[in-house]
Design goal:
This protein is of the alpha/beta class and 334 residues long. It is built from ten helices and 17 strands. Strands 5, 6, 7, 8, 9, 16 and 17 form a seven-stranded mixed sheet that branches. The chain has a six-stranded parallel sheet with strand order 12-11-10-13-14-15. It has a two-stranded antiparallel ribbon with strand order 1-2.
């Protein structure tokens, strides 16, 4: 790029470019573009990260389409404030701002921002506070797959008091949230029931489920079993359907607002009832990611990876995730 200082003098400034996943309006997967744009320049309080892996997840899909509509109040009412897609990433620090003392060039880091990290690109900038060290022996793609779903799964188990011997049902245990949640609740020595499709029964059993419902063959809500907690990790059931399955002081938690956004109001409506609804407002990532890191280091959590795509095929990755049939996480290798 050539910048004119005055009529006699010119200065040539070299701006490196990068490939990024772009959308300038709220749209569908087929309208996502991969474009060459200027590489971001870190401020004195930021670092430049070379992204090696990211995912396409439910949060990304909500950010793309702004469904539910409430997303627009965070992302931009009429059009997105950030045009580059992506909420999570794993990569390598390649440039450090003058004021950053806690990170060095070559550090392997990962991070997550549900309002958008602009991570479906070759490079991004971030502050040190938004980055976390990747545990040794954990690959970039495993690190990226350990963020979004596990971040929300943490909120499920830390909104309640789980005791040994209790019974827990996880609806949608094969998704990014559900597969992490299943592994997290194992530590409490509880009886775990999971719902999944036929092809993932063995996976659910390997992750620790004591009983599995194949939702293509049976409806768990018609059973007579009782549960202390029902965690709807895909938001495809309702409190009304699940209430008969709860014990006298049972609790229902859903990852979604519900068909009429009722899950936001049920916590107040059930305040005086024995069976309650809790809405899992996420904890700060400064609580969730260190927890995830510890579980990774101890070998007690292994993210499930379904498919991998290149950045050039980002539209296909979104289209697949939006079918609602992914198992665990979908990786985009940068």
């Amino acid at each position: 790029k050539i910048i004119m200082l005055n009529r006699q003098h010119f200065i040539i400034q070299l701006i490196h470019e990068m490939i990024a996943s772009i959308r300038r309006q709220y749209t569908t997967p087929s309208h996502i573009k991969t474009e060459d744009i200027d590489q971001p320049i870190p401020s004195d309080n930021e670092v430049l990260v070379k992204v090696h892996a990211t995912t396409v997840n439910r949060t990304d899909c909500a950010n793309l389409t702004t469904k539910p509509f409430i997303m627009r109040f965070v992302l931009g009412l009429l059009q997105p404030k950030k045009i580059i897609l992506g909420t999570d990433f794993a990569g390598e620090v390649i440039k450090v701002g003058a004021n950053v003392k806690s990170l060095n060039i070559g550090d392997n880091v990962f991070g997550f921002c549900d309002a958008g990290a602009e991570s479906q690109a070759e490079y991004l900038t971030a502050t040190a506070e938004d980055l976390f060290p990747i545990p040794e022996k954990i690959s970039y793609k495993e690190a990226a797959a350990s963020l979004e779903g596990a971040h929300y799964a943490y909120s499920f188990i830390h909104k309640v008091d789980i005791l040994p011997g209790q019974s827990i049902l996880i609806n949608g245990a094969t998704g990014g949230i559900g597969s992490a949640l299943l592994q997290f609740v194992k530590q409490y020595n509880v009886k775990i029931t999971a719902s999944c499709n036929t092809k993932n029964i063995a996976l659910m059993q390997s992750l620790g489920a004591d009983k599995v419902y194949d939702y293509t063959q049976e409806d768990f809500t018609t059973d007579t079993s009782k549960y202390d907690f029902i965690f709807d990790a895909v938001g495809k059931s309702t409190f009304g359907k699940c209430k008969p399955l709860l014990t006298e002081k049972g609790i229902y938690i859903s990852s979604e607002l519900g068909p009429y956004a009722q899950n936001v109001f049920y916590p107040l409506l059930t305040l005086g009832s024995s069976k309650k609804v809790i809405f899992p407002i996420p904890f700060n990532k400064n609580k969730t990611i260190p927890y995830i890191t510890t579980r990774l280091e101890q070998g007690l959590f292994k993210p499930v990876i379904d498919r991998e795509y290149s950045l050039a095929d980002i539209s296909k990755a979104y289209a697949y995730v939006m079918t609602g049939e992914k198992t665990g996480n979908v990786i985009v290798n940068i």
